[in-house]
Write a structure and sequence with these properties.
heterodimer, A: mainly beta, 4-stranded antiparallel sheet, 11 strands, about 0% helix, B: mainly beta, 6-stranded mixed sheet, 5-stranded antiparallel sheet
């Protein structure tokens, strides 16, 4: 049983560019959440998708947007990249029957 | 929002030693999870423990929900236990985890 997968592993972008990160949830999971982890800090909640809708959102600007597909996979899009967007982006999934979340290996984004 | 504090922030131990990591939270919770973050950034699930006590090999955890704290015990530490340990909670049952600032554990051979 594959766990949560994310792509790409690493990414380098220039200020002002746009980026798309991808996540496939664990088999049997229908809820996907995205987190941003800056260096030396704990992960911060960005938003969550369920049934292809954004169910809730953390304190992140509208430059951060997402999508969930019918197969429950998800994308995180960030527009107009800033240097401060450099971080590890983590995707987590959970089943409908439990609150327990499982995390993917993350995508490390560097903005230069 | 809910506040999560972890202590100590850093812990350096000799291989074979035991350790106790603490997580305090400011409100009642529906979910509490302990994670180990390895050097590559992967968050590894250790325990899902909103209340009670669980054990898995050399690791065990206890959450006292009424007193709003959780403890993670690591016995007979190994160098592979090194890394950052996070406690994360969800207090609305909406699967939005709030993380503590972590405890960095270093095990010296």
């Amino acid at each position: 049983d594959a766990g949560v997968t994310q792509s790409p592993t690493h990414l380098i972008k220039t200020r002002g560019q746009q980026v798309t990160l991808r996540c496939s949830p664990k088999s049997g999971h229908d809820t996907v959440s995205w987190y941003q982890q800056a260096l030396g800090q704990g992960p911060q909640f960005i938003f969550q998708y369920y049934e292809e809708e954004e169910r809730q959102r953390g304190n992140f600007p509208d430059r951060f947007s997402g999508h969930q597909f019918p197969n429950y996979s998800s994308e995180l899009n960030v527009n107009a990249l800033l240097l401060g967007d450099s971080a590890l982006y983590l995707c987590a999934s959970s089943p409908d029957t439990s609150y327990e979340q499982y995390f993917g290996p993350g995508t490390r984004l560097t903005v230069t | 929002g809910i506040q999560v504090e972890q202590s100590p922030p850093d812990l350096i131990l000799q291989e074979g030693a035991n350790s106790t990591l603490r997580c305090n939270f400011s409100d009642s919770v529906n979910n509490l999870q302990w994670f180990h973050q390895n050097p590559w950034g992967q968050l590894i699930n250790l325990f899902y423990i909103p209340s009670g006590t669980k054990q898995n090999g050399r690791l065990s955890a206890t959450t006292v929900a009424t007193e709003r704290y959780s403890l993670l015990y690591i016995s007979s530490s190994q160098t592979t236990d090194s890394g950052v340990y996070f406690c994360a909670v969800d207090n609305f049952g909406n699967e939005k985890l709030t993380f503590g600032t972590g405890t960095r554990l270093t095990i010296i051979p």
